[in-house]
Amino acid sequence: MAVRIEFLGREASIIIFILILAQGFHYSRTCDCDQQYFCNCSSNHLQQVPKVPANALGLDLSFNQIESIYMSDLSPYSELKTLNLHKNKLKFIHKDAFKSQHKLEVLDLSLNNLKNLSSSWFQELNSLQQLNLVGNPYTTLGPAPIFQSLLNLRMLRFGSPSLREVYKNGLDGLTHLDELTFVGSNLRLYENGSLKAARPIGLVSLSLQNLFQNNPELVSKVLQDVSHPETLLIIKDVALRTNTSTEPFKSAREGGTKSLSFQNSTTTDEAMTSLLMVMDGSSLSYIGLEDVHLIGQGWWQKASYTHYESLHTAYIRNLDIQGFFRFSSMMQLGFLLVHLHKVSVINGTVFVIPRETTPLLKNLEYLDLSQNLLSDLTIEPTLYTGFGAYQNLNTLNVSQNVIKSLGLMSRLATKLKSLTYLDLSHNSFVSMPENCSWPATLRFLNLSSTKLRKLTPCLPSSLTALDLSENDLMVFNQRFPQLTTLILTGNRFMKLPQGELFPRLQTLLIQRNALRMFNGNDLRRFKTLQYLEASNNNFVCSCEFVSFFRHDVDHFITIRDNRHDYVCDTPFTLRGDAVDSVRLSVFECYMIPAVLVLCSLIIIVLGLIVFTCYKFHIIWYLHMTKAWIQAKRKPAVGRLVEELRYDAFVSYSQHDAEWVEEILVPELESAHPPFALCLHKRDFQPGRWIVDNIIDSIEKSHRTLFVLSEHFVTSEWCRYELDFSHFRIVDEHNDSAVLVLLEPIKKETIPKRFCKLRKIMNSRTYLEWPEDEEKRSEFWGNLRAALQRDE
């Protein structure tokens, strides 16, 4: 039993260990932490706060299934500055869950299941600047103060369709609040002063939906608290259809509201007329309509007597007008148009401004008609300048329309005498006329994404900023003496334009082209260039360019975009590598000099080898060694069967042949017993390689008799015979050499490379041929004894 329990204990330990490893792997897999210590754990079906590095600065847990946050879940992460718990299933947060987050600046708890808000959550969040509580099912806010400890809070978002009652909750103590978003579409009770902060809030966004129609008195209380001349008031998600629904805006007028915007709403021309009448006499200076659906035919007569002298900006974006083509002329809004200085109608299906309407725009300075339906046929009446129209216009944006004639636009722009900024981007000009007229005041021209393929002198030379990005341009040859900013991104330029054309250029953007490289000479031609953006090009990473970019480019200009986006296109082995990370060898950078140096070194080394071989006879040594090895490889059977045929192999110089043949040979071969001598002239096998004859004769001889003389040491073949005898002495460890000095010679004349023979000469007695005939009998006796075979 004990054994069984022990086994189960080990098994449980292993299972627990595996689970721990799996959990750690799960955390590492689901949370991605970058080098800025921001951990993204979003959309990973997490049910609890995962383990992340303790020094994490940001933690994104949005779109998970976390239901509770306990006291210990976040305590290790005291360095957190951003915590996002948006769209989870939070029901419970411990009162001390955020106790260690003293540095937290952003907290998002939106779209969860929190039914109650606790002030204890925020007690230690002294650094919190942004708090989002929108979309939780709490029904009451207050009366206990909730936000009073958040003294550094700048942005607060709270409320939901579930919210029914709002009481004072501590906003009056927040002195840094800049932005407030409140959602209360089903609000039933509102205590006066609940949304009133310690000072005016810069932006207040209210989503009250049907309350304008169903409970205007409550809306009036809310507007009374948030309206102020310094506050931009945004009304979202409402339906203003009747005169009654606009009554609450009297509170906004009384509060001195200057900026009013409607977003994601529906209204009618009747309700808008009523609004204008309600706000009559106010200091309203800005009105905005974004994502608004307008019903009606544009009858504004009832508001024609109102006064809006301070209204100078109208911003309209994504306006959907039901029955647009039945909509009446804007003439009836003349009482507003004559005061406007800035008008934006973006994505509003505008195809024309009638010629009769443009004189009402005599005070207009800024006009944005982008993302509409203006064409060559309708742009001319739209920009009609008669009766003082557009006399003050300095900015015109007609981008993303269907205009096709650049010549027409230049002619119309010439009549705009105050125009300095013109945006014609995202139209389809394709070509450019040779000559154009432009207003002398024009300084900025945007022709990006207009499908231009070629530049002509049409462009005005008065420009200080020119945007030609996202076209199909390859060459730039026009001079712009005043240009300070040039944008050529997304074209097909293979090199930088000539700097002499832009004597005052300070900023050049030329990303996503076909640039191969640039160097110091290219940049010196730009006398005043300070900033360059040239990433995402097809750079050739030559040694010159890589060295210049890594070490010298900062001496000329400031690279303003990311240097890691400057990557190599060629050579193929470096494709995709950042230029800053490329390291090229000396051989790659200086191939011709490197080849010359390498060849020179090879020649020198070969010369040294040749000289060494000559000086120390290395070739000769190798040749002799090869011959001896070949001899040694011969089968030894013959030597065993056949005894030594000769008593001595006689090695002598041809100059000493007379002495050898007439004196030495007769004396030894006639002796008793006679000696068998091997002479090359007599005994070498005809037709056989002489070296083989020498080796064979030495091997078949008991001794080798060297007849030394001055002629001997200078004879090449005598040297061969002496050398092979040397090999035999070294190989067989014997003293088979017999030296006869025919005449006195100096030991130094014997080649030094034959150290063994030199040693023999130094250690043994020479047999010297005596000049005195009386001593010759002794000489012959000694020689016969030296040649005598061992018993």
TrEMBL record:
Signal peptide segment: 1-30
TIR domain span: 644-787
Superkingdom in the source lineage: Eukaryota
Coiled coil stretches, renumbered: none
InterPro entries in the cross-refs: Leu-rich_rpt, Leu-rich_rpt_typical-subtyp, LRR_dom_sf, TIR_dom, Toll-like_receptor, Toll_tir_struct_dom_sf
Membrane topology: Single-pass type I membrane protein
Membrane-crossing residue ranges in chain numbering: 590-614
Subcellular location: Membrane
Disulphide-bonded residues: 33-39, 436-458
Listed GO CC annotations: plasma membrane; receptor complex
Pfam families linked: LRR_1, LRR_8, TIR
Biological processes, Gene Ontology terms: inflammatory response; innate immune response; toll-like receptor signaling pathway
GO MF annotation terms: transmembrane signaling receptor activity; triacyl lipopeptide binding
Record keywords, A-Z: Disulfide bond, Glycoprotein, Immunity, Inflammatory response, Innate immunity, Leucine-rich repeat, Membrane, Receptor, Repeat, Signal, Transmembrane, Transmembrane helix
Function: Cooperates with LY96 to mediate the innate immune response to bacterial lipoproteins and other microbial cell wall components. Cooperates with TLR1 or TLR6 to mediate the innate immune response to bacterial lipoproteins or lipopeptides. Acts via MYD88 and TRAF6, leading to NF-kappa-B activation, cytokine secretion and the inflammatory response.
Database matches in PANTHER family: TOLL-LIKE RECEPTOR, TOLL-LIKE RECEPTOR 2
Stated family: Belongs to the Toll-like receptor family.
Protein's UniProt name: Toll-like receptor 2
Organism encoding this protein: Cyprinus carpio
Protein's gene: LOC109060541
